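Q: Can I see a sequence and its folded structure?
A: Here is a first one.
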Amino acid sequence: MGVFLVRGMRWVLRAGWAVAVLLGLNEGTLIESLGGQMPGQEGAFEQKAILEKGSSESGWHSPGSRGSEGISRGKSGGAGGETEPLAEGVRALTRALQDPDAGVRESAVYALRSMGRAAKDSIPALGEAVRDRDGYVRAIAGRTLARFGEAAVPTLAALLKDRRPEVRLVAAEALRTMEVEAKGAVESLAQALRDSSPAVRETAAHALRNLGPEAQPAIPALQEAVADQDGYVRSAAARALVRIGPASLPALGELLRHPDERVRRVAAEAMQTIGVETTDARMK
């Protein structure tokens, strides 16, 4: 785990430097933003930790997020001059996703992630990056797509049909983290409940669970998944039906006649939870 953390931080620093160069920041400005130290100098990690602490996702801002935040303020304030350099940076980073070096591709993804939704034009290229031969690039590209919200749903939904299970898993995980913003992928996630990979099926069930009542069209597929041969998939599907609420009761009721006692037990427990939650809601 420590190796991945160090690797990630190394590329975070490089990505931030790349963004600064693309946006035309001079060396003095960048050194000042890093607490007076160049990337790679002693204490750089500590300086970045102080500057970037506080991200809602992991306790750290993505590389260059302070710079991109400033650009957003400049645009809204009428400055306007930063828009074209930012667009040029996005285009350059998008091209860098095809670089033969995995480290460069990884840094490019991090840099695009730091720009937030201003980099939404890179969605198709990031979708291709989810198919990257490097597992770390795939994972970061999926997380980056999730940050674009509903705009990235068609791309992620298409990736759920990729021939490689590792790609489908990244797409399902990205949709899971998006919660209600992934509502446009309900049909695709329902189909993923029949995936050949148990990990993909389980993650798709968790993604539907996070959608709550929005996942109601997936009830038939979730009903089938409650009878899955994999116990984790069964549990995740039952929890998704619980989150959908009373509309799931007929499907769960049918499962009480299933020949496998494990399925009947899961269905009964899910119905109990729905009943308790419904009663509690009415009493408030």
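Q: Show me another, different protein.
A: A second, unrelated one:
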Amino acid sequence: MKHITFFLALILISTWLTAQERHINRIPDIPGYKTLVCDFHIHTVFSDGSVWPTVRVNEAWYEGIDAIAITDYLKYRPHTKDITADHNRSYEIARDYAKNKDVIVIAGTEITKEMPPGHFNAIFIKDANTIYNDDFNEAIKEATSQGAFITWNHPGWRVQQPDTMLWWDEHTFLFEKGWMHGIEVANGHEYYPEAISWARDKNLTFLANSDVHSPIQVAYDLEKSRRTCTLVFATERSEGGIRDALFNGRTIAYFDNMLMGKENLLRAFLLQSLYIDHHEESGFYTLTNPTEFNIEVQLTNKLYRDWSKTINVKPGKEHVFSLPAETSFEEISVTVKNFFTGADQCLSVPLSTIQPVDQ
């Protein structure tokens, strides 16, 4: 009966994949860079996931994901009774299959330890087998010697930090050794406000990943939202372009209609995502959002502080508003309530910097 249920599940997954139309991203580029949608934390049956590596490629293709990293565990492999393989095998299967799917597959692994310091991903690795080591620091050292990009995963995971989210001495050690390059400010269905400030203050790369174990359509309602992912600003759509962007911190983390990142990148992204039009005859203004993300703005007059207006400009929609009497357009600031530069800090720009629709 279990075998029948398993094969029925595989049939349903295959049917879902073949029935879906591919999602076309409505995500803007920023000046000088191409925006790539990436998920750098994914599991398959070669660790404790429940799908074959080729399914991960199909899921990414149908969602319009540009790149994924296969990051199966080195030590925790509960399916070894049925699957025994080299630690690189899941990546190799996905990489070869993706050649005809226009999806970039990056080699990776997840190095795990109890807190501190917790779980870390290493991507752009050359050989997962040599990274396997009971000594956590030796494993990280080996990954770094391979040129890996190292990320602290789910720093606020309640299994490991149930009460208070802490930055431990062990994290300082890894950071100062140059063995920590990024941090997940969001993982799956949760995000970590403290990590946003840590990423900003320590100049770590902002990352958000699905950490998906089940089929993606089980983990997310893709008709209403998209998976937790990282927007990467690359010079080119290639593994090398992604690598360069990650090591230089050119990313924005996406989670549940929230965008988190460095102030300059969020500003550049906003100015390619929101446009304004002034209807001189009526005096009204229109904000237009051609992207697939909500943009929640609060308009505030620096002189009339008792006035503010919160506007949710939905994806592909327009929103009409007017200014209070005797209020100058140049005096209005825009705070984007779902663009986070720190734990409690949102992006703020002058309304006058928002580009007209016709530009």
